[in-house]
């Protein structure tokens, strides 16, 4: 029977072309949407890697009156002391602009043992940064006074996996194969999803902010106590205005920036799903119409099949099978295109994302086709053979 | 072979009731070649459909091949049609998207059996109707007479005991019609197949063993 159906489909390839291409296009669209959703979902399921609750960021722009390193150091030591003196502030760290959810990026990169490692997020932070963010250390240690003027680096777990696999990383010397500039790994920290809950952490490199760098640093992260309220925020704002003169200071709550960062992902995603949803509804109606029309065109054939020994249910089974066979052809063709994504490593996304999306798309298309052909199939089974044979 | 008792068929639509068959009693012996004649709309096709288990009578009982089929399920009826009956229609009812050989194999697809067996039986049936050289053609590439011969091959491929033919020569000129008639006669003679044929052609009817005339749903002769 299978061969018979195949022959029937093949001989009607011209009529079936529309059906085939309709399923092929929807398959590819569904695959794209599922790839995106799978990508986001898998990232979403990973731990955030730090605590954004009660973390405030202070951004200031200061027209430095002096470029003298010593006087700058004295100035910032003063800022630090004034802030630390506030009981509402539990921890603080100066940081480069690319702290989590900041929309600011700084990357570096190198080739390590022939493997391209870039891009690597390049964070420049202080000794208490990990405490402010509640980061989790997996191996070795975080920065402390020992690292003054040492080329120490803390890497995240993704970078560690990429460079060393399951081997320990602490103590290893890293850097570009062909360059002088080498760094010593002192610790490995858990991945921090700095781009929001739906994006991967990527590879990260944490360097110690040395005192000579205060010239260009413009951000402070604060971990505040549960008692820190709006009143405290305005007091803090005034204090900052006073101690960092001529500056535009801006205080942001990391929970807020996180939310807005997440909506940057979620809103386009919802639009995408809605558009795809409409497309699928259209395709479903189209399939339904094609199948319905098909059956009205084939009443004679259906009547004949009944006369020569087909039951009503075998007629409807045949029609559903034909649709599924056609869907299978489209899926095979579509999978060929879809598989190019993991094979060519497009967008640098894990192959598993594409494979899961592919399987979901296949299941979805089959369900769609079954859904659209069940009712026409049932109608076909109800066609009275004597009546159908009498027409024409 | 076929025994119809007090068969009545009423078609009901929203507005009218048509009494298509009215109190038909008919006994058809094994190996008989029977023809049915009558004016258009007198119920010939309806009667044939009832014998062919494609339509249920409103009243009366049917025995075919010594089986009372009154209580048969949809599945049993389908199996019965497949194994015991062969159909030939005025408009052939071939599937235009299948080659001649595949059209002839069709009834065998609803039985068990290997593809090779099906091929052999279909080739044999096509040889019987003299179409061995057309097996790869599509129905649209054949003449009307050739198409009807394909339909006959399809009707006999499963070696049924009974063939029901509804105006098999209705669409053909007399030369082609005679050809078809000769095939049916030889099937009846050589294989002992029981044949019931509806026709409008007196000449064809006279070549059969017995003629039944219908008028307004009743038997008049
Ligand atoms: N499905 C149906 N619904 C309602 N009435 C029907 C149906 N099929 C047939 N009839 C009616 O039953 C009567 C007998 O029809 P039937 O087709 O048996 O005639 P026939 O003798 O085969 O005519 P013809 O020689 O034109 O083929 C007609 O009056 C027809 O209108
Ligand atoms: Mg008729």
Automatic annotation (TrEMBL), chain B:
Signal sequence coordinates: none
CDD domains hit by this protein: ABC_MJ0796_LolCDE_FtsE
Record-level Gene Ontology MF annotations: ATP binding
Residue stretches making up the ABC transporter domain: 2-220
Keywords: ATP-binding, Nucleotide-binding, Translocase, Transport
Transmembrane segments: none
SMART domains in the record: AAA
Database matches in Pfam families: ABC_tran
Protein family according to the UniProt entry: Belongs to the ABC transporter superfamily.
Protein name as it appears in the record: ABC transporter ATP-binding protein
Lineage of source species: Bacteria, Pseudomonadati, Bacteroidota, Sphingobacteriia, Sphingobacteriales
